[in-house]
Structure formats: structure tokens, C-alpha cells
Write a structure and sequence with these properties.
By secondary structure, the chain is of the alpha+beta class. It contains three helices and eight strands; from the N terminus they run βββαβββααββ. The chain has one domain (15-165). The strands form two sheets. A five-stranded mixed β-barrel has the order 1-2-3-5-4. Strand 1 (15-28) and strand 2 (36-45) form a beta hairpin. Pfam families: DUF3577 (PF12101).
Length: 175
């Protein structure tokens, strides 16, 4: 087969973009297969004055995304609010049975977990202060116009006092 007769493979990419808080950062070490990093994202949805949360359990894919998530692990475990702008690919739903009563579900209920692959992090804020990409000098910031209107919205978001996240086993975790 020569290059003229080879067909290029095509893919349909499903990407979900948003902003949200990083939670439950961990390294997963399966019995079979290679270890990988995973986390939960409490994505913001709705009116910016009273946002709602949508939770995504994601595997971290790519060297840069993995490095950024690892760098956030200590801050998240210390209780800092790590807001990210993210891209998730290959979103799917996973059904599970709740094994403990909570304020969201009763024991035995069927619940859904949204899962995907975290492929890119565009921005990180630690307790409201941008840490990635690196912030330029104050003089440059004052003279540079806002390039992205989404970034202006992110700047205006209030930090939540506490986010309650429910694990698959029904336990609630404050973040």
C-alpha cells in the first residue's frame, strides 16, 4: 500500500469546556495496567451570582495536565480553593448503586456519575489569585485589554464557602 492509497483516519471529538473547582486529586494504581491520575471537578453552571455545580470524575491525560493537577494536590488537601478552566473529552455516564443514605440519595438508589478525560487546563486560580498561566507584571496587566470575555466573568466569581461533594459510596466530602 502506498501513500496515495492510504486513507487518513478521522475522529469525532466531543469536548466539554468550563470552569470549576478541583477536588479529590489522587493517583490510581490498578492491579492490571499502568497507574494514572484522577480528580473530581465541581464545574460551575447557571447564573454567575448563584452558580450550581455539575460534578465530573475525570482521568488526567497528557503530561502538562498531569503536572498541573499534581501541583494542585497539596493545595487542595490543605483546603485551598483551586479554580480551573478546563477541557474534558470523551464524556460518558456511569451508573452505580448508592450504599449509604445521604441528603442527596437513599441507600439502594441508582445514581449517575459523569466521567471523562481531563485533557487540558487553561487557567488555575488559588483562592482567587491566578497562578497559571503566570501573571504578568502589574504595569502590563493595566495596559493590556481583556482578551477573553469569559476571563472577565471568571474574575468576578465569588468563592464558595464550602462545596459538598458526594462520593460513589454515598459519603459527603466537604471541599
Amino acid at each position: 500500500m502506498n501513500t496515495q492509497t492510504q486513507q487518513a483516519k478521522t475522529y469525532f471529538n466531543l469536548h466539554t469546556t468550563g470552569i470549576g473547582y478541583l477536588n479529590n486529586i489522587r493517583e490510581v494504581k490498578p492491579k492490571k495496567g499502568n497507574p494514572f491520575w484522577a480528580c473530581r471537578i465541581a464545574a460551575l453552571a447557571g447564573d454567575s451570582t448563584t452558580p450550581e455545580y455539575r460534578y465530573f470524575d475525570v482521568n488526567v491525560v497528557g503530561a502538562l495536565a498531569e503536572k498541573l493537577v499534581k501541583n494542585c494536590q497539596k493545595a487542595v488537601s490543605e483546603g485551598h480553593k483551586m479554580l480551573i478552566s478546563f477541557v474534558i473529552s470523551d464524556l460518558w455516564a456511569d451508573l452505580y448503586t448508592v450504599n449509604k443514605d445521604s441528603s442527596y440519595h437513599k441507600k439502594g438508589d441508582t445514581a449517575v456519575s459523569l466521567k471523562g478525560r481531563l485533557i487540558r487546563i487553561n487557567m488555575i486560580k488559588k483562592d482567587g489569585v491566578k497562578v497559571y498561566p503566570k501573571v504578568s507584571t502589574e504595569a502590563e496587566q493595566q495596559t493590556a485589554p481583556v482578551q477573553n470575555p469569559e476571563e472577565a466573568i471568571i474574575e468576578a466569581l465569588p468563592l464558595p464557602e464550602e462545596i459538598l461533594v458526594q462520593e460513589e459510596d454515598g459519603n459527603e466530602l466537604p471541599f
